[in-house]
Amino acid sequence: MDGNGRWARRRGLPRIEGHRRGINAAREIVRAAGDTDLRFLTLFAFSVENWQRPESEVNALMELLYHFLEEERHYLLENRVRLRCIGRIDELPAPVAKRTRSLIDETAGFTERTLVIALNYGSRTEVLDAVRSYCSAVIKGVEDPDQCDWERFSNHLYTSHDIPDPDLIIRTSGECRLSNFLLLQSAYSEIYLSPVLWPDFDREEFQKAIECYKSRERRFGKTGEQVSAPLPATAQIL
Ligand code: IPE
Ligand code: MG
4-122+165-237 has which fold? Predict the structure, then answer.
């Protein structure tokens, strides 16, 4: 969800106003996804690198996140959407971490749709945490390194076994990079680059991305004759 700062700057507004409008866009896209057959939607809200921003901006982002979770609670419960978070939740300010955890618990029983929020997330941090988790499982005798394959190792990633690899990754604001987002899980993801700044990314833009995805041919290393493109089950936005 990139481009909040530029959106604000172009209007002579403070960056935080861009983030505020970005939250509105996030709410709209959560609802737009709810009107499709997407089962998983991931929003990259805050990266491990984002702590390097000015303290006032980080604090404002945390406050916005806190209110976003509060405001979305009703929607998630009413629409039976499960919330999952990927990232180091423990390192977030206590009220944000607490609200996140309680909403995860409250919605844990829903199975049809999942909203994943990447919060204090970074792919490399995730890999290190997974290696730590895998090694401790080896020490406990639960895992055997000789038996290690992708299936077993990937169970130690934040996405674990219940969040599938993304079919479609949308990046807004014209940037052409993955920025430490789901680097392992995106091995075969289709990538859609939108020039639109995140606060202006609406239902229509979202639909365009999905239409574009449908025109892609996914091969997973096979030949074109062996495969045909399925509809997207998951979309991730950064
Ligand atoms: C993305 O918008 C929002 C977050 C990282 C939370 P930016 O703040 O990165 O916007 P630009 O890139 O400065 O325009
Ligand atoms: Mg940016």
Answer: Undecaprenyl pyrophosphate synthetase (3.40.1180)
Min mean pLDDT across 54-58, 204-208, 218-222 is at 218-222
Number of residues that make up the chain? 238
Beta-carbon contacts of 94 under 8 Å, excluding residues fewer than 6 positions away, are none
Nearest of 119, 117, 114 to residue 39 by alpha carbon: 114
Task: Give the mean pLDDT of the chain.
Answer: 96
For 215, phi then psi, to 5°, come to: -85, -5
| CB 50 less than 6 A from any atom of ligand 1 | yes
200 carries an active-site annotation: no
Tens digits of residue pLDDT in 177-194: 999 999 999 999 999 999
Domain boundaries, the chain: 4-122+165-237
Neighbours of ion ligand 2 (CB under 5 A): 2
- pTM (global) more than 0.85: yes
